[in-house]
Amino acid sequence: MSREALPPLQARLGYVFRDEALLERAVTHPSWLQDHPGEGESYQRLEFLGDAVLQLVLTEALFQLYPQEREGVLSQRRASLTKGAFLAQLARELGIETALRLGTSEEAGGGRLRASALEDALEALFGALYLDSDL
After folding, report:
1. Catalytic residue (choose from 51, 106, 119, 132)
2. Is 128 in contact with 54 (CB distance < 8 Å)?
3. What is the SS3 assignment for 28?
């Protein structure tokens, strides 16, 4: 990934980062740091935050959309929206794979298209958006 991949990703998101370093971190796979030690952090901490942000946003949306639903049904709906396959598909639709920073071995092993890497990067992106925005 080069820095040239970040502006198109921001355009697809409909959001321009005030702190582009957050976006860069959100697309940095841990394998990148093995090949480039000392170049910041991977997306893992942002992924942790982004998972919680996603849960909160979806929970509120479902709470508002389905005022008569019981807690169990709402939980099932939320779970279906946070499944790895669904998040990986959203990541593909956003073109996150074009911006991923991967180490040489991860790249060679098809990591750019791996569902788990796409899901993790999308959650990291949610964390980065939360920190950068007024969400």
Report:
1. 51
2. no
3. strand
